[in-house]
Write a structure and sequence with these properties.
The protein is an alpha+beta fold and 350 residues long. The chain folds into two domains: 82 residues, no CATH class; 252 residues, no CATH class. It has eleven helices and 15 strands. Strands 11-10-9-8-12 form a five-stranded antiparallel beta sheet. A hairpin with a 2-residue loop joins strand 13 and strand 14. Helix 4 packs across helix 5. The chain is globular and about 55 Å long. The chain starts with 14 loop residues before the first helix and ends in a 9-residue tail after the last strand.
Length: 350
């Protein structure tokens, strides 16, 4: 039986280039690692040859177990920066962010989305279970929740508050919604704020995937030149407040194929207007292929229609499950797909 991905194109990147990428890799530290991807799964993510993977293991790619189990975040980040051109990480990110290459007006026009979330809690426990998810809040950027339903049906879905709550005696909960998002071009005008955020806009840092628990400790990741969104948002908010600017972080999602959880900074500028500052979004443009030359600047001030905000701060989790006094983070499967773009512009997923 062929391993997963065996029929997909494999990278012909020289092993020395893979080893150079490994040498620069920020590996997930002990205490935050979850080594549960086997060798076949690793080959599917990296799309390198079996021989190259052996060389990477021999050179220090962290793993455990006789069957070689790897951390998924390590593999994703290694693939993303390999420049192989065919890894699952590179191709997935490039496809998902292709909208960054389009005309700037498409970043701000109204769009409508179908939102579908399934949350699954641990089984084997009786009694009533409570699931919650951070409530989609597109109205923070001028959008609207057109419809929101839960399964099983629950009146709490219509109750104002920071979360959608579903109470059930089962192990799963479903939240479905129709959302309308819109953006607005804005410019960060404060020279001092520009100086503060410039630290993350000159290429000295690079984005990487990692567990949320690790991202909540900027002191553990930022000194390594790694800039995940939660860590950067928390750091920038602290520096903006220290400079006298009202600021908050916000948690939400990047809309489209990936439906990635995301965080950014919102700060009151010299003109009294709240600006959205998202240097990590700007940095992701490097993985989008030929991003429009105006995109990076749009990330320093503008509200974009591909961001779905919630009321949560950056270091607040999006999902929660509790039963019998035990609280956990439920497994979640979120799908957000464009229904159509308004203003007579044809829409497509991301």
């Amino acid at each position: 039986m062929k391993a997963a991905g065996a029929l997909r194109a494999r990278s012909d990147l020289p092993v020395d280039d893979w080893l150079a990428t490994l040498d620069a890799l920020f590996t997930i530290p002990p205490g935050y690692r979850r080594e549960d991807v086997d060798r076949a799964g690793a080959l599917d993510i990296l799309r390198c040859s079996d021989e190259v993977l052996t060389e990477l293991v021999n050179a220090g790619l962290p793993h455990s177990g006789d069957g070689e189990l790897f951390d998924r975040h390590d593999l994703f980040n290694l693939a993303l920066y390999s420049k192989s051109g065919v890894s699952a990480a590179e191709m997935g990110i490039r496809f998902a962010l292709r909208w960054m290459t389009r005309d700037p007006h498409t970043w701000f026009q109204p769009m409508r989305w179908n939102y579908s979330l399934t949350m699954t809690g641990p089984s084997g426990h009786g009694g009533e279970a409570t699931f919650s998810v951070a409530r989609p809040l597109p109205e923070a950027f001028g959008g609207q929740v057109e419809r929101l339903d839960t399964t099983p049906g629950n009146r709490d879905a219509e109750t104002p508050g920071p979360d959608v709550v579903v109470v059930t005696d089962g192990d799963t909960a479903q939240v479905d919604a129709v959302l309308r998002t819109v953006g607005e071009p804005r410019t960060l005008r404060s020279r001092r704020l520009r100086e503060i955020v410039s630290e993350y806009s000159h290429g000295d840092y690079r984005w990487a995937r990692m567990p949320e628990e690790l991202q909540r400790h900027p002191e553990l990741v930022l000194p390594h030149g790694v800039a995940p969104c939660i860590s950067v948002s928390l750091d920038l908010a602290g520096k903006a407040r220290a400079a006298g600017y009202p600021a908050r972080t916000r948690r939400g999602w990047i809309l489209g194929m990936l439906d990635l959880a995301h965080s950014w900074l919102e700060v009151t500028d010299d003109d009294g207007q709240v600006k959205i500052v998202d240097p990590i979004f700007a940095g992701l443009a490097d993985h989008a292929g030929r991003a429009h030359p105006d995109f990076r600047e749009a990330c320093f001030g503008s509200a974009l229609n591909r961001l779905l905000p919630t009321a949560h701060e950056a270091d607040n989790g999006l999902y929660h499950h509790s039963r019998g006094g035990t609280s956990t983070v439920p497994k979640s499967t979120l799908t957000i797909r464009a229904v159509k773009e308004l203003n007579a512009v044809k829409g497509e997923p991301l």
